[in-house]
Specification:
Structural class of chain B: mainly alpha
Largest sheet of chain B: none
Number of helices of chain A: 19
Order of helices and strands of chain A: HHHHHHHHHHHHHHHHHHH
Number of strands of chain A: 0
Largest interface: A-B, 81 and 67 residues
Structural class of chain A: mainly alpha
Helix content of chain A: over 70%
Distance between the termini of chain A: 7 Å
Strand content of chain B: under 5%
Radius of gyration of chain B: 26 Å
Oligomer: heterodimer
Strand content of chain A: under 5%
Shape of chain B: globular
């Protein structure tokens, strides 16, 4: 195993060096960095050209330049080695630019990745469990459609319809009756198809979700909820309890007493925390909120440990999820309370969903206002990035789940009389995740560099912008810096994917 | 737990009755090719897709003219014309008896762009360019991938190691990145050159698939038989093994073509692909992105055709995958109560089925052990890292 890892790392480094050579030569061949200066008419043109040649060492052979670049880049790996990724054509050091770009791209892709994984796997599994039903066909067609939609189209459509549409609508946030009826009927159809069961149960689910959706929309409309949203001291505890109950029903089933006790205890602690924390929440910052989440998960795990009886593992999972979601409700409520302040901020002027950049310039406000600002800026690019990977994950998750459901051990589990929920959650779900893990890991590696188009559409200055700006001016060093980061991510995550696969599935051995 | 599947989908078993063996039409062997064709033709969405795809491309090609032949459309994509009615589209599809203006193309069915060029001609030209770029990319990538994969998989050893390391070197660079670099260099030389160069960077996924297929096929008896009979390596590779790996190649190529149109339009959108004055669906969108508010048709027409072409090719690929993969039989699920009385071989089993265990929504019975999805996504997962969606 150890020699496998070493060999693999060695080969990866060689591949990386060879690929960097290929890339360097290609970029040098693609475009001359002096092109813009040749077209320049200013009197000091020759001096500028000479200066740039000196900055980029263009007087040397391309192989020599690559070798020097490689030596400089290699020093980045050695601690305190004096990292040198070269300079841009404006003589700015690339490593500084790269640091900034990596940060902002990570901010962009993290949420998109997590959401795509969670939603993609959920929908894929629902689709597999309801194979060849209307839901399955709808999701299948939907994922094909999203897969065929280039990201630049998605981006432009989101900008025009979601951002401008929502901002315009927010001037008078009232749903028309037609909207309420259509959305309610769609929601009703959706839930009855997903929950399934016999005709009566479907009808009940349909009616109930139709009514609830309609009432919620009507209520939001009447109270102008979108201008001043909040969950308030009534809805928040209810939501916390509902999430806890949902986790119990989903994972352990309604008859598991220990699960109800665990989730109940977690929910009670969180509801108390909701009221206790209210006066202090405005003082929190990012780290504090992170700690709050950790504490909430800890409470859930602890409750599971104490009340889990014969199945501590499952109880701890339920507790952790209930704690996470419950704390999410508390934090969400606090953000909502700040929404109106953000909306009326003179720099926002009632048009919250932004279409360019990563923050509102010169926005004054505490952590919560800044948080909302980041959210409104990241919302559309995140959706656009998410929907694309989401489409692919849905397909993989569906295929993986169907394959797992046809395994003999699933038949055995059913034959020994386990309830369907246990079969799906315990036996099928976990095993169907194994192939998905590898795909996801490989994808995450690619995602960091894959936001070129989305960044361009939403004027986001991350890695993609570094690359496309560098390439269009023939500037080799930013392009190479981009390449190195992307390639290292891709290689590392592929490697991790292989290791994870052999760890999760003992039949596969890394050699 | 044997719940019978649709009898038609079960393989022909032993002859029903002993006696003189007269092969009926059903029992005669059907060739592999015919089987695949039959399965493909039975796949309704794929069939409709391929027809629609050919119709769209054919319509566009005849409208703008190809190979130097003139098309039937009166304007060229380059001619500057005076702008009429603010460049609004003159296409009308609502017939007169429904209160519309009748079905007519008008002077500029898709409108005119901001400088007055006929947008119908531009979009048609874009469809032709984009579709032949994607087909060239697919064909070249398939050729290169098959040759490299076949040699690596057949000879193994150091040849395999060298070729696969080269593949790894190319794979490390995301397709959109290397495509952008190549596009910057050759994008100005016209769509065909661009397509050829892009084909030479997109072959890696197919090479890996073909290699894996060859590694397993070369151990089979028929290969050994051919070798014993004195067949040369080339003959074994191309006459014996490759036809058996053709399914994988065709499916992967189709899906690659679907990815290629997205790659090309994305590159052109970013300005690294097809360059003005030549048009592609991608650069049409990129030119008119800002005009969305004032002249939305400049955006919608190319957008609709990009999605349509890509979706149609994806559906065709899906149909081909179903047709080539013999493990995939479309299971006809029947409600238990719809089955004839004597169909249940296992009597009384249905009563033992726990609620919800096998009977899913709507009472459709899931048959354990029969998967119509098995392996469906294996191809996807092999190819997808290579599609260069570029997000």
């Amino acid at each position: 195993m150890f020699s496998y890892v070493l060999r693999r790392i060695g080969v990866s480094i060689l591949i990386l060096i060879a690929a960097s050579f290929l890339m360097y030569v290609l970029v040098a061949w693609a475009k001359d960095p002096l092109d813009d200066l040749y077209a320049n008419n200013s009197p000091n043109r020759d001096a500028l050209i000479a200066q740039r040649i000196q900055w980029l060492h263009l007087d040397q052979n391309v192989v020599v330049r690559w070798f020097n670049w490689l030596l400089g880049a290699a020093r980045c790996v050695i601690p305190f080695g004096g990292c040198d990724l070269g300079v841009t054509i404006q003589n700015q050091p690339v490593d500084v630019l790269l640091g900034r770009a990596v940060g902002s791209t990570l901010q962009l892709v993290t949420a998109a990745t997590v959401l795509a994984i969670v939603l993609g796997i959920t929908i894929g599994i629902v689709s597999a469990l309801r194979q060849y039903s209307a839901v399955d066909y709808t999701f299948t067609f939907g994922s094909f459609f999203l897969y065929s939609l280039p990201s630049f189209l998605m981006g432009v459509l989101l900008k025009v319809f979601v951002a401008l549409g929502f901002n315009d609508w927010l001037r008078d946030p009232v749903f028309s009756w037609a909207t309420i009826i259509v959305v309610s009927v769609v929601a009703g159809l959706f839930w009855q198809a997903i929950i399934g069961g016999n005709r009566l149960r479907r009808l009940v689910v349909f009616a109930a979700s139709l009514l609830v959706t309609g009432l919620i929309m009507f209520g939001m409309s009447v109270t102008g909820w979108f201008l001043n949203p909040s969950l308030g001291p009534v809805l928040s505890p209810l939501l916390i309890a509902a999430f806890a109950a949902g986790m119990v029903i989903l994972i352990a089933g309604p008859r598991a007493r220990f699960a109800w006790r665990t989730a109940g205890a977690t929910a009670i602690v969180l509801i108390v925390a909701y009221f206790v924390l209210q006066p202090f929440l405005p003082l929190f910052n990012g780290l504090g909120i992170f700690l709050l989440f950790v504490a909430a998960i800890g409470v859930g795990v602890g409750a599971g440990w104490l009340l889990g009886e014969h199945d501590k593992g499952q109880a701890m999972r339920i507790g952790a999820l209930a704690g996470l979601l419950g704390m999410g409700v508390i934090i969400l409520d606090q953000f909502m309370q700040n929404w109106n302040a953000y909306l009326t901020n003179p720099r926002v002027r009632g048009r919250p969903i932004a279409t360019v950049g990563s923050q509102t310039p010169n926005l004054q406000g505490d952590f919560w206002i800044q948080g909302i600002d980041t959210f409104t800026h990241l919302l559309l690019p995140t959706i656009s990035l998410m929907l694309i990977s989401f489409a692919a994950y849905t397909r993989y998750a569906r295929g993986g789940m169907l394959e797992t459901l046809n395994q003999d051990y699933i038949r055995t589990a059913r034959a020994k009389g386990l309830p369907e929920r246990t079969v799906v959650v315990r036996h099928a779900f976990r095993n169907s995740l194994i192939p998905i893990t590898t795909i996801v890991a490989a994808d995450v590696g690619a995602l960091i560099g894959g936001a070129i188009i989305t960044e361009r559409i939403f004027a986001f200055s991350g890695m993609g912008a570094l690359f496309s700006k560098g390439l269009s001016t023939g500037d080799p060093n930013p392009v190479m810096a981009y390449f190195v980061v992307v390639a290292i991510f891709a290689i590392t995550f592929n490697f991790l994917a292989d290791l994870a696969y052999s760890a999760l599935d003992p039949r596969v051995r890394a050699k | 737990m044997t719940i019978p599947i649709d009898p038609a989908s079960e393989p022909a078993g032993t002859p029903a009755a002993p006696g003189p063996t007269v092969l009926t039409k059903d029992e005669k062997g059907i060739s592999q090719g015919r089987l695949i064709l039959k399965r493909f033709l039975a796949h309704r969405p794929a069939l409709v897709s391929i027809v629609l795809f050919l119709l769209i491309v054919g319509f566009a090609a005849t409208a703008t003219g190809i190979f130097g032949l003139p098309g039937w459309w009166k304007w060229s994509y380059e001619t500057l014309l005076p702008i009429q009615n603010n460049g609004a589209p003159t296409l009308s599809l609502v017939p007169e008896f429904l209160g519309g203006a009748g079905i007519s193309l008008g002077d500029h069915p898709f409108g005119q762009n901001s400088v007055g060029k006929d947008y119908f001609a531009m979009v048609m030209r874009g469809i032709v360019n984009s579709s032949y770029i994607m087909i060239i990319i697919g064909v070249i990538a398939a050729l290169v991938g098959v040759v490299i994969g076949a040699i690596a998989g057949y000879y193994r050893g150091w040849v395999d190691a060298t070729l696969m390391r080269i593949t790894d070197i190319v794979i490390v660079i995301p397709v959109i990145v290397i495509g952008a670099v190549v596009g910057t260099a050759v994008g100005g030389l016209g769509p065909a050159t661009l397509a050829v160069f892009l084909g030479f960077v997109a072959w890696t996924g197919i090479a890996r698939l073909v290699r894996a297929e060859f590694l397993s096929l070369r151990e089979r008896e028929f290969v050994e038989a051919a070798r014993v009979a004195g067949a040369s390596d080339l003959r074994i590779i191309f006459k014996h093994i490759l036809p058996n790996a053709m399914g994988v190649v065709i499916v992967a190529t189709t899906l690659l073509i679907a990815a290629a149109i997205i790659l090309e339009t994305s590159l052109s959108f970013l300005g690294f692909g097809v360059k003005l004055p030549e048009v592609s669906l991608g650069n049409l969108i990129s030119q008119n992105e800002s005009a969305f508010q004032t002249r939305p048709w400049l955006f919608w027409w190319p957008a609709v055709f990009i999605v349509a072409l890509s979706l149609l090719v994806n559906f065709v690929g899906d149909g081909l995958r179903d047709a080539f993969d013999p493990r995939q039989k479309r299971v006809v699920f029947r409600k238990v109560k719809d089955l004839p009385e004597d169909a249940l071989v296992v009597s009384g089993t249905t009563a033992d089925v726990p609620e919800g265990a096998l009977v899913t929504a709507g009472g459709a019975t899931t048959v354990a052990g029969v998967s119509s999805e098995q392996g469906e996504d294996v191809l996807d997962e092999e190819i997808s890292p290579d599609t260069g969606r570029g997000a």
